[in-house]
Every structure is written in C-alpha cells, then in structure tokens.
Amino acid sequence: MFSPLTMLLVVCCYMALLFALAQWVERRIEKNQYDTNKPWLYALSMAVFFTSWTFYGSVGFASRNGPLYLGIYIGALLGCLIFWLTLRRMVLAKETFRITSIADFIATRYNRSPWIAALVTLIAVFGVLPYIALQLTAIVSSVQILTAQEHGAETWGVHGLLVTAIMIAFTIIIGMRRLDPTERHQGMISALVAECLIKLFAALTVGAFITWWMFDGIGDITQQIRSNNLDHLMTFNIEGGTGALWLTLIVLGFVGVQLMPRQFHVSVVENADQGHLKTSFWLFPLYMVLINLFVIPIAAAGMLSDIPSQSADYFVLLLPQQAGADLITLIGFIGGFSAATGMILITTLTLATMVSNHLVLPVIERINTLNEMRHKLLQLRWISAALILVGSYIFALEFSDSYILVAIGLLSFTAILQFAPAALLGMFWRRGNSMGAMLGLLLGIAIWAYTQLIPTFVRQGWIDPTLLEEGLWGLQLLRPEALFGFEGLPTVAHTTLWSLIFNLAGYILGTLLFKPDKGERTLTNEFICAMEANRSASRARPLGLDAYIELTPKLEEAENLLADYLSHQKASSAITTILEDLQVNDKQAITIIELIEFHRMLEHLLAGSIGSASAHRAIENGICYSKRESSDLKALYSHIVSDLRTEESRQSETNEKEAQDNFNLLQELQNKLNNLQTTARDQEEKIAGLEQRLETSYEESFRYRLEAQRLKQENQDLKTQLSQRYQQSSE
After folding, report:
1. Mind listing the pLDDT tens digit for each residue in 550-581?
2. For residue 184, what pLDDT is reported?
3. What's the pLDDT at 644?
4. CA torsion angle for 526, 531, 537, 541 (degrees, to 10)?
5. Among 330, 393, 455, 662, which has the highest number of CB atoms less than 10 A from its own CB?
6. Residue 531 to residues 182, 262, 483, Cα–Cα distance (Å)
7. ∠ CA 712-716-718 to the nearest 5 degrees?
8. pLDDT digits over 216-238, tens only?
9. Are 597 and 582 within 8 A, CB to CB?
10. End-to-end CA distance of the chain
11. What's 1's DSSP letter?
12. Per-domain residue ranges of the chain
C-alpha cells in the first residue's frame, strides 16, 4: 500500500517531468535545434486513442464478455485501412483552409455555417463530457485502490476535486499557455508521445508479470481457463444481441478513430506532412495490438483469483497488489494515469478551442459592448477548459457508483457517431449541403439523447421510470429502449441503429429538398477539390497581371484586423512574414493575384487562432475592395479559397458588364443568359446551367491570359539571354 502523500508526490513529479519535456522541446524548436517533424512521433501521438477505457476498461469488459472488447479495435483497424481515403483528405483540407477542429472541418465543408459549427461543438462537449469523466473516475479509483481508502461518495468527491484542479492547471500550463497564430503544439505533442510510450510499457510490464510471474505463461492460463469453466473469455459469440453488439462496436470504433475530437486534433490538425500518414498505417495498428496483448490473460488471472468480479476494471492494479509487487503496481498506476491524462489534455484543449471559436466568439462579435473581449481569447479558453473539466467532475461524481468504465465510454462513442454522415459523406458527395448536414445532426443527436441519455438519467433517479415502461405520451412505440417496437437489442446497439438511420435520413432528405445558393456550391467544389488535389504547403510564389493596387493601405487594413485578435507586435510580425513569403515586401503596388494570396494567407494565419469559419467571417467584415478589385475578383472567383464576396449584391450587374468587356469569349453566353432571365420561371434550370458555364469560361479565359503573360515573360527572358550571348561572342 502507498500513503496518500506518496501518491500525490508521484503524480506531481510525473507531471512536472512532462511539463519539463514540453518546455525543453519548445525551446529547442525556437533555437532550430530540434525537429519534431518525424513520422514516428506523429504515429505515436495518435495512440491517444487508447485511454483508461483501454488500459483498465478492456480488462473489465473482457472478464464479462470475452473477446467482445475487440470490437472497438477491429473497427479502429478498419478505419486505419482507409486512412488514405479519409484522413489524407482531411489533412489536405486542413492545409488549405487552416482547420483547427472537427467542428471547424464540418462547418467549413458546409458553407462555413456558424450554426453547424456551434451545433457540432455542443454535441462534442456534451458527448465527450462523460468520456472525460471516465478518465477522472479511473484516476481517483486507482488512487483509492493503491492507498486502500474507502470508495465512499464523500471521499471520492474530495479526491476527484483535487484531481480535477490538477488537470485544469496541467492542461492550461502545457497546452494553453499562449494564443499564437498556429494550431500546432509541438511541445505538448512530445509530452503526449512520452505518455503513449509509458502506458504501453506499463501495459506490457504488468501483463508479462501476471502471465509469467504469477502463472507459468500463456499455456498455463489457457489450461486454467478451460478447467475453471471460463471458456467465455476465449469464445467469439455472435448470436442474438451479441452479434448486434459486435457490429455496433465495430462501427463505433471505425468512426471514433477518425472523428473523435482528440483523434481529429492529433491526426489532422497536428499533422505537418502528408507523408507521415504512411508510417501511421502500420505503427498505429502495431501499437493497438501490443497494448491489447495481455487483456485476456489479465482478465483470466483476475477471474481465477479471489478478487470480486465487480472490481474487474482494475485487475491491472489489484493483481500485482495482491501478489505484493509494489513496484509493478506503481508502474501499472503510472500507465493508467498516463492513459487518462493524455486524453484529458488533448480533449480539453480541443473542446476549449471549439467553444471559444464557435460559441463564445460569435456572441462577442454580434454584441458591440463585448467586442473588446476579442483580446481576451486566451483567457476565455482557460475559462472554457476549467468549465469543461468541472462539468466532467460533476458527471463523474454523480455516476461514479453506477456505471462501469466501458458503459461511460460507449455513451460518448455513440454521440460522436452523429458526425459521421456530415463529415465522411461530405468528403465524397458533392450534393451534400448545409441544410442536410444541419437536419441530420439535429435528428441524430435528438435520437441519441432520447434512447441513451434519458435511460441513463432514469436509472440515476432524475426522471420518472415510467417513461421507459410506457414510452413518451404513453405510446409503447416510443419507449426509449424499444423505439418503434425494436426490442431485445443492447442499449448501445439500439441507439446506434436508430440515431444513424435518422441522421442519414435527415442528411439525404435535407440535401434533396434544399437547393444551395451559388456561393455554397462554389465553396463545396473548392473544398472537395482541395481534398482531391495533391497540394504541398510550399510558400506562395504568385505571378500576376497589372500591379495597380497600392500596398500600404492594404497593409494598414490587415494589421488593424489582426490587432483585434492578436497583439500589435504579433500582428506586425505576422504581416511581415506574409510579405516575405509573397516576395512583395519591396513593392509599392501589387497585382490582384498577389492581393488574393495576401488575404488568403491572412485568413490562414488568423484561422490558427480563432478557427477557419470565424476567420472567414472576420475577413469578410474587415476587408474592403474597390470597384476594379471586385471586378477582377469575380473573374478569379473559383480560385479564391476564402470566397470573399464584398458588395456582391450591389455590384452584380456592374461586374457582369465589366467581365464581358474583359473576357470577349463570354459574350455569347452572357447574351443567352440575359435573354433567359426575361423568360418565364420554368426556364430557371437552364439559367442555372448557363451560369455554371459562365463561371467555367471566366476561369478558362483567365488561365489563357495568365499563360500568355507567362509565355511573354519567357520570350523576353530568351531574348535577353540571346542578346547577352551575342555580346559575349562579339567581344
């Protein structure tokens, strides 16, 4: 046994070492003495997927249901197999649009909708809150086991509050110390990788100790399983409800490994090189196999011992403790603590960023009296992180005695499942639109709450239990756990089935019934094209047309915009960097292409602090264009990532006329369009077709002009070279 003071010292020393590692890495990076851009670091950081739910809960799950615990990991493995189709596309979209979270990704796909961003954020917060609570529960319970303290509510509350306070400080100090115009946290990722290695080492050490020290190896454990009627530990049962549960867990694992907020952050947002995905294809599955290698042996050893079965979640600690191996017990605790803290750190950081960018910031920008709070975004993220962890603590306190670890984890997995249609289908189906995404998300999360969350509250005594027996309004078909008469399914399978059906139906129905406007169609095409193109994140080298745009006013405008969110020093430094990348720092005037690239990079930089959707709104509200600039922007419409449409309604007719003068190739199409606009409403489809052809012709005409200019420049260079060679030969 260990004293509470000893455990406190162990926890504090461990976290101090992680903080020191993060600081050391960041300082070495600042001095260009250390490179974190390594594929194995990226692949190992993805192992944050394996939390205390894996470290402790898998053993408890296996002791009750045998190999069924593998369902989640089989699904995750299947998700890995299509990383090149899904994860790679997400990374490409992130590089183009500077996406900072799963909410930012989905909102950007659907016309940068602030409502979708807010809805996804709310789903993520309320869906993942139980999962954070799971980690707090695991930490507190493991401390109580090692200190042999009572598991009463009062004791749990005190310990839980202390752990929550430590986690708040740890999250802020390591992951949220400053608000920089960048989304990557290399010091934090290094600490996370260290935790992933520690929990793997701990899992293998404890597993090897139990298998070969307490028993005579795998063969001995297998023999004792058979002789003690524990065959369920090794039997793959797919009959009845178990088969449905297998399929459900596979689906949840498949979606979770790609769309969990923490998983999206480490695998997409923190990705620095698309090539690193190749390493993750084999290293992440290998890690998955290794960390689950001794689950069945540990579960069997626990079932063969005199440890109560209700403590199965903590066999990893109780078995070495029973054997008197204090060192192994402590290693097991550190492994479980690493698994829990890594998840808490990344998840809280991600959720706090989503809350500040998509819930708090839009409110601040709409209320004039709150505009000054834009300078307090970092502090707002601290407050958001603290509230999230306090909310998780309250949830854990209420449910600490009634829910096993796996049950809490599955509650979160089914909530995150609601992102699947909008996120995964949206990457491939161009017709998917914002109305379909919104309707699907609303229906899916409503069914989730009704079929899984409400039964949880009923069992906790918060809601009248007659609702489960009689259904809503007394209708038997509306019973939360037997919706539309479907009985006999496990709760998680039942929720997964109906929430996914309603989500998909809403997504498809909204898409088919709602016709998006031209702006949304254009952004959708750009988003999907960005995921299909094999682009590199190289510095911009724009060529252009006539340099008629004065640079100084544009710089002042941009600096004033950045100063609303960043300090004046950081704003000035950021603009200087952009000018260097564009190679226009010594110019008095720039071209329209250079202006577009300047604003794109400006939005890209700002998105690292406030998210892609919020950055786009800030650019739209803070940047103005002259009449000529607007006209040229229309010609380049399909090339502009940020989709800036300033004064579009007022100047649409003028822009059409000017575009005709600049691009003679479109005269015939424009005449047809004008004629069609005077006809009856039944000609609307034909008008829409001509508008699409018009945009394509604008793009083609511009490319012709750009190519002509390039060839002209090359011709001039050749003439210069020939002249020089002639002079040299004459001499």
Report:
1. 777 777 777 777 777 776 777 777 777 777 77
2. 64
3. 40
4. -30
5. 393
6. 21, 21, 39
7. 115
8. 888 898 899 888 888 888 887 76
9. yes
10. 94
11. -
12. 4-405, 551-703
Query: How far apart (Å, rounded) are the C-alpha atoms in residues 329 and 332?
Result: 5
What CA–CA distance (Å, rounded) separates 89 from 426? Answer: 11
CATH class of segment(s) 4-405: mainly alpha
Tell me: pLDDT of 422 over 90. yes
Q: What share of the chain is helix, strand, coil (3-state, %, to 5)?
A: 80, 0, 20
Q: 551 or 546: which carries more pLDDT confidence?
A: 551
Residue type, 276: H
The CA distances from residue 171 to 27, 136, 166, 375, 386, in Å, are 19, 14, 9, 21, 9
Strands 589-590 and 549-550, how do they pair?
antiparallel
Collapsed DSSP state (helix, strand, coil) of residue 83: coil
pLDDT of 678 strictly over 60? no
pTM over 0.85: no
* 8 Å CB contact between 579 and 539: no
Dist CA 238 CA 195 (whole Å): 35
Q: Provide the pLDDT confidence category of residue 152 given band limits of 50, 70 and 90.
A: low
- Does residue 539 carry a pLDDT above 70? no
Nearest CA-CA partner of 180 in 75, 266, 273, 100: 100
Query: What CA–CA distance (Å, rounded) separates 217 from 239?
Result: 31
